[in-house]
């Protein structure tokens, strides 16, 4: 029996250690979530394909059009269909080559290359946006998880308070009333309701996060299983701010300096690259004023006549070109349209900078208020709430307080700690939002860690 107990104990320990390692394997850090989302983003792959397509088109656009070869039988008499009957009957073979207007081939190639250069910049902006979106989803899951942990810790305390009240009421010791017991049970029920709501919020946020990771083979095998088993680390992540160099301009509300910084944002740079391509389009439209040239050459074979006398063959060489005389309804309008298109994109750039500037200033103002609230909670509110809860419990223990006041103080203390947690999470979300405005779309995961 002794050996059996030892064997079973060892087996249980091994099973418990296996479960611990299994749970560790299912912990999803913020860095892992961002890395997986970027790696599996189909938009980035599609952008790469579109860039490759534009580069391939630029090569083909810089090539001359294919020469045209013609073969024909000319002037064949219909009264006998004899090739040697008439001297004008010929078997002709010719070739012609058209040359585009001016430098339109090189300009078209350059325009397509400029459009292709836009995609790497757009991918940087996409990476920055993906980092922000995944961070916000992850932090919502973390908020729910940590709030659940706080409530579950306090729920045990409320159960103990209820048991003490029940025992005091049964023994007729103290001033416990039946309504105090009902109040304790009611608070436990309300805590259970909050836990149910928080579990629902966590599951919804996790489902939204898994959408970004749906192409990862580690997740697609059984997403429902991961929705129930994946948990986040208990340590609060640290997100390095990227706006340190801009804080002086942010605090002084220097809109011009901030706008100058936002010009380097990938979203704005992509529009700037689009403007360059559009300007090239103006040069391309101006090439329409130049004539389009073509050359042609042909060789005509004639058969000997019916008396077997030799006939000379013919060689023909020529050039062709069009004359752009009536430009007011075509070339002028094409150039005007290209100029207007460029100016429209410039307007798009100005609107983008204005929008980013407004969002940045709004996000930073909210961030400062959150910092103020964090200081207030850490220095005053949490301390006062804890002291109030302890004081009410001490008074009740000494038979000098009201049970309802103990419950209210404990609920207020719990709510204050949850509010402090929400402020911490909102600060991390705010920092992620501010980082987007100063992100270059490069290595983003090195800025994320865990606070021990």
UniProtKB/TrEMBL annotation:
Q: Which residues form the signal peptide?
A: 1-22
- An MF annotation (GO) of this entry: porin activity
Q: What is its main location?
A: membrane
Which keywords, in A-to-Z order, does the entry hold? Cell outer membrane, Coiled coil, Membrane, Signal, Transmembrane, Transmembrane beta strand, Transport
Q: Which residues form a coiled coil?
A: 181-208, 404-431
Q: Which domain of life is it from?
A: Bacteria
User: What's one GO-annotated cellular component?
Assistant: cell outer membrane
* Location relative to the cell: Cell outer membrane
* InterPro entries with a match to the protein in the record: OMP_efflux, TolC-like
Q: Which family does it belong to?
A: Belongs to the outer membrane factor (OMF) (TC 1.B.17) family.
Tell me the protein's name.
Answer: TolC family protein
């Amino acid at each position: 029996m002794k050996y059996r107990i030892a064997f079973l104990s060892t087996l249980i320990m091994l099973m418990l250690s296996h479960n611990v390692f299994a749970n560790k394997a299912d912990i999803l850090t913020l860095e892992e979530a961002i890395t997986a989302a970027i790696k599996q983003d189909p938009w980035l792959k599609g952008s790469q394909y579109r860039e490759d397509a534009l580069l391939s088109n630029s090569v083909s656009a810089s090539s001359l059009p294919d020469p045209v070869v013609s073969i024909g039988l000319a002037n064949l008499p219909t009264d006998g269909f004899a090739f040697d009957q008439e001297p004008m009957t010929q078997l002709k073979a010719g070739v012609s080559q058209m040359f585009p207007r001016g430098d339109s081939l090189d300009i078209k190639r350059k325009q397509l290359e400029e459009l292709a250069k836009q995609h790497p910049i757009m991918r940087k902006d996409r990476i920055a946006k993906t980092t922000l979106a995944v961070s916000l989803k992850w932090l919502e899951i973390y908020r729910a998880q940590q709030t659940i942990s706080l409530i579950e810790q306090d729920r045990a305390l409320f159960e103990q308070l209820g048991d003490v009240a029940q025992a005091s009421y049964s023994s007729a010791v103290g001033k416990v009333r039946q309504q105090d017991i009902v109040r304790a049970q009611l608070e436990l029920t309300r805590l259970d309701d909050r836990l149910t709501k928080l579990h629902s919020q966590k599951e919804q946020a996790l489902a939204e996060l898994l959408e970004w990771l749906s192409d990862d083979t580690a997740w697609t095998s059984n997403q429902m299983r991961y929705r129930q088993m994946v948990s986040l680390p208990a340590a609060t992540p640290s997100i390095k701010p990227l706006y340190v160099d801009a804080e002086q301009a942010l605090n002084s509300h220097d809109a011009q300096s901030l706008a100058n910084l936002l010009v380097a944002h990938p979203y704005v740079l992509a529009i700037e690259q689009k403007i360059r391509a559009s300007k090239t389009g103006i040069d391309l439209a101006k090439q329409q004023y130049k004539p389009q040239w073509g050359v042609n050459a042909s060789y005509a074979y004639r058969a000997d006549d019916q008396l077997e006398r030799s006939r000379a063959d013919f060689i023909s060489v020529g050039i062709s070109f069009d004359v752009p005389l009536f430009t007011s309804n075509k070339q002028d309008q094409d150039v005007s349209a290209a100029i207007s298109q460029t100016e429209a994109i410039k307007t798009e750039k100005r609107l983008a900078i204005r929008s980013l500037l407004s969002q940045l200033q709004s996000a930073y103002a909210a961030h400062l208020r959150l910092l103020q609230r964090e200081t207030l909670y850490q220095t005053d509110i949490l301390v006062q709430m804890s002291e109030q809860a302890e004081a009410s419990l001490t008074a009740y223990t000494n038979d000098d307080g009201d049970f309802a006041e103990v419950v209210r103080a404990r609920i207020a203390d719990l709510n204050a700690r949850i509010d402090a947690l929400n402020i911490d999470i909102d600060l991390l979300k705010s920092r992620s939002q501010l980082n987007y405005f100063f992100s270059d779309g490069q290595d983003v995961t090195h800025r994320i860690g865990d606070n021990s």
